[in-house]
Each structure stands twice: as C-alpha cells, then as structure tokens.
Amino acid sequence: MTATLTDRYVMTVARGVPEKQRSDIERELRASIGDDIDARVDRGQTPDEAEYAALSDLGNPARLASRYTHGPVALIGPDFYPSYRHALRGLAVTVLPAVYAVLAIVCRARGGSVWATLFRPLGDTVTVALWLAVCVTVLFAAVDRAVTAKSGTGGVRTGWTPDLLAPVQTRRETGRRDVIGVGGKAALVIALLLVQRWVSPVHDGSGAAVPVIDPALWDVWIPFFLTLIVLAVVLRAVEARLRRWSPVTSAIDTALTLAGALPLAWLFWQARVLNHALPGAGGALTTHGSWISWAGVLFAAVVILARLTDIWRGRRPADAHRP
Questions:
Q1: How many Cα atoms sit within 13 Å of 165 on the Cβ side?
Q2: What is the dihedral sign for C-alpha 75, 77, 80, 81?
Q3: How far is CA 216 from the centre of its chain?
Q4: Residues 33 and 6 sit within 8 Å (Cβ to Cβ)
Q5: Cβ pair 140, 88 in contact under 8 A
Q6: What whole-number percentage of the chain has pLDDT above 90?
Q7: Residue 160 backbone class (left: φ over 0; alpha: ψ -120 to 50; beta: rest)
Q8: 87 phi, psi to nearest 5 deg
Q9: At what angle do helices 81-109 and 61-69 cross, to 10 degrees?
C-alpha cells in the first residue's frame, strides 16, 4: 500500500514522541486531520487539495512533535533535531566499530596480548565517540542558529510544505516466503556440514577425503550451532504467524545471533574451526591470532552488526501508519 501524505506526516510526528504516547497521539492526530480534510472538501476543495492544505496549516511535524511532548527547544531546535539524532546513530553504528577494529588490529600487530587487543582499544573508541558527539552537536547547533537568523522568525522556520515529508520506510512483515527462504538456507548449511565429512574437496596422500571443518567440533559445538539454526527457522515461523514486529521475538533473535556469532568468533580466534589435518595445514590454520583468526572474528562482527541492525530497525512497526 502506498503511504499517503497523512501517513507520512503522522509517522514523522510519531518518531518524535515517546512510544507509550505514540498510539494515542496518532489516533488523535489522524482524527483531527480527517475532520479538517472533510470540512475543506465540503467547502469545494478536492480531497488531495484538502489534505495538502490541512497538513500545511499544521506545519512542520518535528515542531508539532515537540509541542506534544512539551520538550524544551534549546541547543538544537525541532527542525534539525531528528536529523541530528539520525546522524549520531549513523556514526555510532558505522564509524565507531570501524575505529575499534582498526585499533584492535594495530594493537595485535604490535604484539599485544589477546586481552589487550580486545580491551585496550575501548578507551580510545570511547574518546572518539565523545569527540564525534561534540563536533556533530556543535555543527547542528551552528546550522540551526544560522537558519533561524536568516529566516528572521525568532526560531520558527518558514517555507515548510508537505512536499518536504520524507517517504515512510516500513519493515516488511515476515511471511511464508521468508520462512521458506530461511529454512532452505538452513537446510543447505546443515547438508554441507554433514556432507563435507565424507565428500570433501580436499584429499590426503592416499586419496581419502579430509573434512574441511575440524571433526572435534562434532562433540559439542556443531550440534550446538545446528540447534541454533533450527531455532532460528522456528522463530521465523513464529514471526510469520504474528505478522507484526514484536520486541519479544526480536530479543530472542538477538540472543540467538549473539549465541551463535560470539562462540564462532572465539573458535576462529583459537584456530579450532578448520581441520588441522588439511594438507599443508600450519601457520595460519593452527595458530590462534593468525590472519585467518582475525578474518573469522571480523566476519562474526559483521554478522552481528548486520543482523542486529536488521532485527531492531523494526522497532517502529509497519502498522504504525495504519489508516
């Protein structure tokens, strides 16, 4: 369904108010806009013209949200605050992980211990985060004041129209195709883990197949990971049944992601994933902290970041812009 101007306006206002007040404010705002549109249509305007005019009279949705919450406008006004908050979040999930990863690699390259490599970069990363927050805040405050001074309206920007509304981005509901897709991927991973024990692309001197994955992992770790995979498929089926975003299922999904990715990173770091019996094994395959270990840790970090972003971007459900 294509979002109307009213949908986009209400969603923009809803982003600026506390979640516990969101439903009541959305309902009240939609009723008010609907009544205004009906009155304008009765006076001879077309529905599209009436909707556009009603939203124009309401003004900037960011400022309307600040009036709903009675929030003080001090350092950064409501016109720029949503963009300011989005900028901080974007930097937090992109720049800071990259800074930490680079510092950790440098620390390890200089001969730091495992614990030093993991924890020493934290302090510098926090320092970078503070500097980024200060610089971004100062930048947005300066721009806000410059625009306010140029408009000469005492803090209220003029010229806002409904054409400036951002498109509504909604989270697609989990459906049957998603469950089938996840189930197919899970079945493929399980099949590959099983088949590689007997049908391997690598052979020893006698021509016997050599498993790529360390057979010792079948004692505990591989059954553990297989259990997580099955639980992930079950969770997708539950989400498809609910047909809406749920904080409970998202929390479970987060737990499954961390339960799988963190041990996998540790196993890579300990050089316990690949079979040490592989022809030519040694060095990178058998030494923890080698480049393969780092590659595995980086892969796990990317998986965690990507999955958590995908899971929690649905915290404002798609039905928030319901008609």
A1: 25
A2: positive
A3: 35
A4: yes
A5: no
A6: 9
A7: beta
A8: -65, -45
A9: 90
Closest by Cα among 265, 258, 305 to 118: 265
Residue range 198-213, pLDDT digits in tens: 877 777 777 777 888 8
Are 13 and 30 contacting, i.e. CB atoms less than 8 angstroms apart? Answer: no
CB atoms closer than 10 angstroms to residue 293? 23
Handedness of CA 43, 48, 49, 54 (dihedral sign): positive
C-beta of residue 26 within 8 angstroms of C-beta of residue 78: no
Longest dimension (CA), the chain: 91
Cβ 6 vs Cβ 30: under 8 Å = yes
The residue count of the chain comes to 323
Instruction: Please measure the distance between the N-terminal and C-terminal CA atoms of the chain and give it in whole angstroms.
Output: 11
pTM of the predicted protein model: 0.50
Identify the CA nearest to 309 among candidates 117, 147, 118, 89. Answer: 89
The answer to whether 232 and 186 are in contact (CB under 8 A) is yes
